[in-house]
Fold this sequence. Notes:
Blueprint: E1 2-7, E2 10-13, E3 24-27, E4 34-40, E5 46-54, H1 67-74, E6 79-87, E7 93-98, E8 105-112, E9 118-124, E10 129-134, E11 140-146, E12 152-159, E13 165-172, E14 189-196, E15 202-208, E16 213-221, E17 227-235, E18 238-246, E19 252-258, E20 264-271, E21 277-284, E22 290-297, E23 303-309, E24 315-322, E25 328-335, E26 340-347, E27 353-360, E28 366-372, E29 378-385, E30 392-399, H2 412-422, H3 424-428, E31 432-434, E32 439-442, H4 458-477, E33 482-489, H5 500-524, H6 528-537, E34 538-542, H7 558-561, E35 564-570
Parallel strand pairs: 33-34
Antiparallel strand pairs: 1-2, 1-27, 3-30, 4-5, 5-6, 6-7, 8-9, 9-10, 10-11, 12-13, 13-14, 14-15, 16-17, 17-18, 18-19, 20-21, 21-22, 22-23, 24-25, 25-26, 26-27, 28-29, 29-30, 31-32, 32-35, 33-35
Helix pairs in contact: 4-5
Amino acid sequence: MKQILLFTSLLLASLLSADDSDYSIIIDKPFNNALLDIRQDYDRDITAVGFTKKYNTQKNKNSYTNAFDYLSSISGANGTQMQLIKLNAEGKVLLDKSSALSQFSQAIAITKTPTNGYYVGGETMDGQLILLKLDSSANLIFKKVFGTKNFDKLSNIVQLSDGGVLAVGSSTTSRNNNDPMFQTGLGLNDIFLTRFSKDGRTLWSKKYGTQYDDRAIDAVEAYDGSIIVVSTTRYNKNRHVTTMRVGENGNKIWLQHYKELKNITPRKIIKLRDNNFLLSLSVVDDMNKDQIRLLKFDLQKNIIFDKTIHTKYPSVLMDIKEYSDGGIVGVGYVRDAYNTDALVMMLDAQAILLQQAHFGDDNYDMLNAVTILNNSQAACAGIFTKNDSQESNMWILKLNRDATIAQKATNTLGLYKMLVRLFKKEIASGDIKIKQDLTILLEDKRLYFDIANYKLTKTQEIFLDTFSKKLFTFLHKHQDMIQTFEVNGHTSSEWGTSAFEEGYVKNAELSMQRAFFTLKFMFSCQNKQTRVWLSKIFKGSGYSYSKKINFDNAVENKAKSRRVSFKIILNETK
């Protein structure tokens, strides 16, 4: 797998190979498949939806004189199917369910229910819209097939504060005076919104638009319960953006049309924590390349900022999400003359690019959706195409905050084996020892402390500098597994001629000083990002001489007892 990192405006490219511990899950099934949306479940697993294709390879013995009769006979079991995939932290597939609906269909979007179930929105190939409510095991609670008598398309379903959902899509204009929506069917295609209650009742269904071709792309609920809708408006060869605000009952409050000289396409809108809105767009530049544009505006359609991120190759962000600190993660695709790669961008709250990464093989790969997880990682869903293949596969990718691929969760033994491989040279040379309980011992006598001393020698500092950078780079990649990193100070049992109680207390203080000075030095060796993470997991402890080391004959090895050791504590796994 290829990975290209861009730090601010500096171009820094490097190729990395994926290994088995990378959380990059490719679900390979026959024919073209894709994942289009993704969410985190309340049990911390992740679930994505999209479509697979299934065909009957057995010869049909029945004969048909009408093509539609034949299609009807196979539509419940073959063709395009709505697909749901659920994975745990180890990348294990927990659920793999495809629909057997009466029409060819595909899932477009997914949201959560309060009971850890799902709303799944999709569409049939003949222009009907579908809303499913599923329990946590993806068993059907209800199915709603809705829309007009014309050809409809779904773009997204939006979770609303009352527990219901809003279906966002488009519909071809009605030419039937008996259609109750005829008065609002204005152009070639119209914005089509349908609001459902949490129990699946249709509250209202309305069309909006101009005399031109209008297609709703996305929507988001504002803090006051109104809804912001973003859509495309096409006429002649022009493609522009329209934003619209409607009330809870669907009545239009305002409409803003962005008409520009260059073609511009909306991709995603989100509500920010400051109750403003961020819109991801792609705009065609003078070289006829798509460039990423981010537009921030308030509830009254006032523009707060409008920024374009200029990239060397055509780039699009299909989805964006906001972190708790205001940072933004965006995913999509970047395309050159030879192939298409998945694109990840990390931006600050002002839409300034911090990091960029490209993932994929030398073929067609892209990310359609992203969701931010509880541990600040991001899970992405999309399409992966293997080299020398013409069939796309479902793809789930988990990323760290620095746009690197996260690691699969594993058990203590798995992490132990990886640490042993990582520190193979240090173990062979006798510098360290790693135990299966993830305790790391310093074995070289030059790394021990002198009597009553807690300040690090130059030899200790040189070793700890290299060791800690190597260790913490590794642990940071596995940060979702790590609960605590302990730095433990130890002493030998003697303390001059002091009484037992006084000797123990002074040794306790000395052991804590050794832990503190070691922790402080290792902390200072790391970059800022790693220090921020370490501040959440570092723990220093002093054991006095309670864990002194003995020779085989049970006599205390005083020199070896004057040390620090390290212990990695993992999060509990399910």
